[in-house]
Recover the amino acids of this structure.
């Protein structure tokens, strides 16, 4: 169902890799709600995914960009403003990567070159993106910038590895840059802390199926899907949330406020029998 929440609004969506990704689902929902956008991803990610299919479906242009490169980001922002016919109203940052996770290096035995690369892709790229948007005055007043995160930024999930540190840094950047963006440009900046979601990136984390099953048993409403996260993101892009900024917003079925659930306790009790 469409409510025309984003009619006339323009933006950039980072990270739509395939139909499982939250960015992909969000792009579809933005299109349904009347928004227009440019899609972007790193050239190597674009070769791995099927972003052309999404672009065709939504009538969107693709502008490849390495989000760790300020030069690429400047070309992306300028190209998006030109393609869409004006300043931007929303940006979704939905990218993250850990080489240590991908190659099975334990948190206590990191390859620090890989760690730095992961930090640059997963967190510093968010600062670089906002700096380019800020310096070029590319956002309309009351625009909205959203990045996706996970609660391993606050609590220990051992196999989430250095991605937990990256997400903590990402959330800090959202608050710190969000202050200046709000004060100077009337633009809001928030992060969404989503349930564990079976995206291509998420499934690369060791024990991910266990994450999902545990969170499902802990959460009174169950895990939020990628589609439901897209719906929530749309509300943050809309004018209905104009005074929401500097927030890390949990979209996790209530998991983040749980200590233990009956279902989890029963599983432990049964295990002891």
């Amino acid at each position: 169902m469409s409510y025309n929440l984003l009619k006339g609004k323009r933006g950039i969506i980072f990270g739509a890799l395939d139909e499982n990704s939250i960015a992909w689902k969000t792009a579809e929902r933005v299109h349904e709600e009347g928004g227009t956008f440019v899609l972007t991803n790193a050239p190597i990610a674009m070769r791995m995914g099927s972003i052309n299919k999404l672009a065709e479906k939504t009538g969107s242009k693709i502008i490849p960009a390495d989000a760790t490169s300020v030069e690429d980001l400047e070309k992306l922002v300028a190209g998006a403003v030109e393609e869409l016919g004006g300043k931007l109203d929303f940006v979704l940052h939905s990218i993250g990567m850990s080489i240590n996770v991908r190659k099975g290096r334990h948190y206590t035995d990191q390859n620090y070159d890989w760690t730095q690369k992961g930090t640059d892709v997963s967190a510093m790229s968010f600062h670089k993106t906002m700096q380019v948007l800020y310096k070029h005055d590319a956002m309309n007043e009351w625009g909205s910038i959203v990045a996706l995160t996970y609660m391993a930024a606050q609590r220990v999930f051992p196999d989430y590895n250095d991605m937990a540190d990256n997400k903590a840094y990402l959330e800090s950047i959202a608050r710190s840059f969000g202050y200046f963006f709000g004060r100077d440009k009337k633009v809001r900046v928030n992060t969404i802390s989503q349930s564990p979601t079976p995206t291509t990136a998420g499934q690369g984390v060791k024990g991910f199926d266990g994450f999902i099953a545990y969170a499902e048993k802990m959460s009174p409403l169950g895990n939020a899907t990628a589609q439901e996260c897209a719906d929530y993101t749309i509300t943050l892009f809309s004018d209905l949330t104009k005074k929401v900024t500097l927030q890390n917003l949990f979209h996790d079925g209530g998991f983040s406020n749980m200590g233990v659930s009956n279902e989890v306790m029963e599983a432990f009790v049964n295990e002891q029998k």
In short: The radius of gyration is 18 Å.
